[in-house]
Specification:
Helix content: 40-55%
Strand content: 5-15%
Shape: globular
Order of helices and strands: HHHHHEEHHEEEHEHHHHHEEE
């Protein structure tokens, strides 16, 4: 069941029409219709509104397409970081290795164990029911719901971290390992993802990430954006400690700093989009005048019908493309104008950490949204080399103090 089908399923289950859902979410009726037929995919903000209107968690819309064993393993790593999994099994008496056929997983969280026990019972029950009557409808009048009876198994921060990790393609290396920063690093010039390079003969301090665009050819990216993994870990950890410490010690100043930077970044992006929109609208008006002149020339005999048809077809295609682009730009501008930094979300996560002794995948995905790597200046010099790394934090984006530099 895809996202569109799930939206329709829960909408009908709640007894709402598409028009009613549109009113509750403040999303256009045409968009709701396109979501449900799968023509377009709703963004995170729209999914949040729809989930709230349908009284469900937006987690139900998360897609987990596990196509390979490597992807299943990466999800297990995330689960282990989030809820702590215990591995149980028998060992070979001679080699002291676990016997594969005896290995099982156990969750240390008591609430998760209770949930898994209930789930196992339900699966056992459904497996014993004939296929043609597996769908059992229980009248809503007979539902019994117990809310807030125990602490959440997954916090909002953990759920968001898993979602972000699943949205990015995170492939294991040929050695079967998953880079901690996989799917989070981008080239500052061409926007391509950086991927990890390592080999069996590499020491830990020799492993590095490099721009995938540069590896495709200099016509895609002309500069090798690369950085060693150990240096990146040091930069991220040091900056994260500084920002979390500052946010905890000077909360009001931190909030003001985030808001000021948020306005600055939004205005920068809006100025570019508004300029493109203005140029597009101007050209659309010019094309209307051209159409009028072409028609007049054709009527007066100055332009043949064949020539008129060719020119008008070309101009109509250009105008249609510009109108489509203008509609997209207007939607993007409206979205940016209505969006603001979620500093409360960042502070709620920061308050959980009095100290960050090391950078773990869980901490990284709770705080960091993405990392942008710039090309090093004078990359072969041991004296003048300087490289900028921009760290975008979840909920607050980039700050002046999250632009870090390495000169090694």
């Amino acid at each position: 069941m895809n996202i569109g089908e799930m939206i329709k399923f829960y909408r009908l289950k709640k007894g709402l029409t598409q028009a009613q859902l549109s009113q509750l979410t403040d999303i256009s009726l045409s968009s709701i219709k396109q979501y449900e037929i799968g023509k377009i995919k709703p963004k995170h903000e729209q999914l949040s509104k729809i989930a709230k209107a349908l009284s469900i968690s937006e987690v139900v819309f998360y897609e987990f397409n596990l196509d390979t064993v490597g992807e299943v393993v990466s999800l297990l790593f995330l689960m282990d970081d989030a809820v702590d999994i215990e591995i149980i099994g028998e060992k070979d008496k001679l080699e002291e290795k676990y016997l594969p056929d005896t290995v099982s997983l156990k969750f240390k969280n008591p609430y998760l164990r209770k949930f898994m026990a209930d789930w196992a019972l339900m699966k056992e029950y459904l497996n014993n029911v004939d296929d043609d009557i597996k769908k059992i409808k229980n009248p809503e009048s007979e539902w019994v719901i117990f809310e807030n009876t125990h602490e959440p198994i997954w916090t909002e921060a953990i759920a968001e971290a898993v979602k972000q990790a699943r949205q990015s393609r995170r492939r294991p290396t040929k050695m079967g390992e998953m880079g901690m920063f996989s799917g989070m690093m981008y080239c500052a010039d061409c926007g391509s993802i950086l991927y990890q390079c390592r080999a069996t003969g590499f020491r830990n301090d020799q492993e590095y990430y490099i721009c995938s665009g540069y590896r495709k050819g200099k016509q895609v990216c002309g500069t090798p954006h690369s950085i060693r993994t150990v240096i990146l870990e040091e930069l991220i950890l040091q900056n994260l400690r500084e920002i979390v410490s500052f946010a905890r010690s000077h909360e009001n100043r931190f909030v003001q700093m985030v808001m000021d930077m948020d306005v600055k970044e939004r205005n920068k992006g809006l100025a570019k989009k508004r300029k493109l929109l203005s140029e597009g609208e101007k050209r659309i008006t010019e094309l209307d005048m051209i159409f009028k002149r072409l028609y007049e020339d054709n009527i007066s005999g100055k332009l043949t019908d064949e020539r008129f048809h060719k020119l008008s077809t070309d101009y109509e295609a250009e105008q249609t493309g510009l109108q489509t682009q203008a509609a997209i730009l207007r939607e993007e501008i409206e979205e940016v104008e209505g969006k603001s930094a979620n500093v409360d979300r960042f502070l709620s996560v920061a308050r959980q950490y009095t100290d960050i002794p090391e950078l773990t995948p869980r901490i990284l995905h709770e705080f960091v949204e993405k990392i942008v790597i710039h090309a090093a200046t004078d990359p072969h010099s041991k004296i003048n080399r300087r490289q900028e790394v921009d760290i975008y934090y979840k909920g607050i984006g980039i700050l002046e103090m999250s632009k870090v530099f390495d000169s090694r």
